[in-house]
Amino acid sequence: MKLSKRNLLAVAVAATLANGAAQAQISDNVIKIGVLSDMSSLYTDLAGAGSVAAARMAVADSGVEKRGIKVEFVSADHQNKPDVGSNIARQWYDVDKVDVIVDVPNSGVALAVNQITKDKNKVFLASGPGTSDLTGKACSPNTVHWAYDTWMLANGTGTALTKAGGDSWFFITADYAFGAALERDTTAAVQRNGGKVLGGVRAPLNNQDFSSFLLQAQASKAKVIGLANAGGDTTNSIKQAAEFGIVKGGQSLAGLLVFLTDVHALGLNTAQGLVFTETFYWDMNDQTRAFAKRFAEQDKGIHPTMVHAGVYASVLHYLKAVEALKSDADGAKIIAKMKELPTDDPLFGKGTIRVDGRKIHPAYLVEVKKPSESKGPWDYYKVKATIPADQAFRPLKDGECSLVK
Potential cystine with 195: which of 13, 23, 190, 369 (Cβ 3.0-4.6 Å)? Predict the structure, then answer.
């Protein structure tokens, strides 16, 4: 009996030491996740508190806490200002011991965080920003760009509408890094397919009155008015375009970045017929529907956007990489492991992360349903075409990323 007790004690001590060794490389004995988002302005519904909920769901579903790894969260509002976002990122990395920053729905803020993360050798999981420069000229060994980007949006929507006869364009563009990148990438897609751009105008971020910009677009006689903006700017543009009778007058509106929450804000009467590109829709299959149900219970009934889906999936894969390395200390090593491991999650399915940090998965050209076609709340899309993963994003050779040999 005494021998048995000694054996049991020895096993217990060995297990404790083994667990301690496994966790020894987890900095401060905790993985600290910082959700940096727009918590109060034009991107709050498509990201915001929902991104915090999605990150927490990923941690719960990963099971890491049951295996003895502690995870903590912090969150903040970057106010769509690069200087504010930069200050938060530095505070988090230097003082608060944050290991990974996720989301960041503003390309100007994201480009700043991208550089700071590289300098500090931490991890940036970008799901909110759009600029394709994050995997192009600004690519970093410490960043993964997950859900979508401006090249994907331009390739999907710009190509489809130009091929369908919309061969002349005028842009209303958000006047910051995201809008410029989206206009640039869409212009290239339009011209590649035989179309031409007649002009464009830059509008301030978080703008309320688009009347002067819409009148210029109307006067251009362009067949397609490309809205190179997002969130509240997109919904305001579309609502005011309806008041001006632009679509009734024969011109088409191209919402180059439209989210599920934008369609919800517009209502199907106003949004019906809009065609745009997405990488995630909550009603695709049983797994996405189950996720949406859980998510909505935590985010005021809102159904998840592709940003929320990207936060969830990227955090899930990040935790797999940390567990595989048994360490969260070296950001570049974690990103390298994330690229090495094939991705597999219930929202995007199986996929890969390229050397430039671009997460690869299919994209979908969708059309907003008529009110008569919708079967209930949040039933808004019908999928017109699937763009295969190997065609949805910019070819690796064209990105000018320094990581590509």
Answer: 190
